[in-house]
Amino acid sequence: MDLPSLLLCILVELLAVNCLDMAEERIVGGYAPVPHSIKYIVSLQTTDRQHICGGTLINKYWVITAAHCNIGVDKMMVVAGDYSLSIYEGTEQEILPQFLVPHPEHDALNNNNDIMLVKLRAPVYLNSYVSIALLPKQGASVAEGRMCRVSGWGYTSSSGGQIPSTLRTVKIPVVSTEKCNSTESFSGTITETMLCAGFSNGGKDACMGDSGGPLVCEGRLYGVVSWGRGCAEAGFPGVYTAVSKYRRWIDETISSYYGRCDNN
Ligand code: ARG
């Protein structure tokens, strides 16, 4: 093979892999929940209504999401009470953020401390479409094998195809950090502030567009969708920020802003 064809081959290969990667990003193997039955989830959007990440309401003024979802306070909008992103259902509450508090030690290289708090300018109204999620206690853990629910507006199919505009959800088991860190899996890149969840055969997982969204176990928000290798691949569970390791930081951050009226 001559050099130009070889280069072309490499380019096609790279593009194909990238296309696959992109197509594989979103909740895989899940289903559409009863509309408005998952009331604590929010869609983080750009001010021109492009969905970028999920998030979770933890009280009327605060949302938890991933630090890598930080697009800047001026570009972000929070939508609660949503189900279909493309249809106006009359249940949506669109609220602008007042400020963003990404974790001060967020490391974009190894995805460590991938957590961010979003303070809303106005409180959400809690009603039959919108509610909050409970947080785990500082340091609490969920046992391996316990089933958790991850939800989001991410891609549904590893073969690409359509981007769903309705919410999807799936139940997956917690994987021990030991297994997740084994050489057949993530080879030591999982820190103790991360949590892995997924079936060993793959098939069900979160994906790009689901980032920042909730992983709820035993009725509490134990994980924030953070990263993975592809989506729903056997041997590679999804990796979540372990919320229980940040309970103190969350409480301290929220109380340090309590009663502040500054507009920045
Ligand atoms: N980083 C992705 C996002 O920004 C989420 C990836 C989750 N991947 C996974 N296989 N669970 O939306």
TrEMBL record:
- GO terms for MF: serine-type endopeptidase activity
Q: Its domain of life? A: Eukaryota
Question: Catalysed reaction(s)?
Answer: Preferential cleavage: Arg-|-Xaa, Lys-|-Xaa
This chain's protein is named: trypsin
Question: Would I find Hydrolase among this entry's keywords?
Answer: yes
Any single Pfam family the record assigns to this protein: Trypsin
Entry keywords, A to Z: Disulfide bond, Hydrolase, Protease, Serine protease, Signal
The protein's matches in Gene3D superfamilies, at most eight in alphabetical order, are given as: Trypsin-like serine proteases
Whether Ribonucleoprotein counts among this entry's keywords is: no
Domain Peptidase S1 intervals: 27-255
The GO cellular component terms are: extracellular space
Which organism is the protein's source?
Answer: Pleuronectes platessa (European plaice)
User: Which positions make up the signal peptide?
Assistant: 1-19
Q: What is its EC number?
A: 3.4.21.4
GO terms (BP aspect): proteolysis
Task: Provide the protein's localization.
Answer: Secreted, Extracellular space
Q: What is its main location?
A: secreted
Give the lineage.
Eukaryota, Metazoa, Chordata, Craniata, Vertebrata
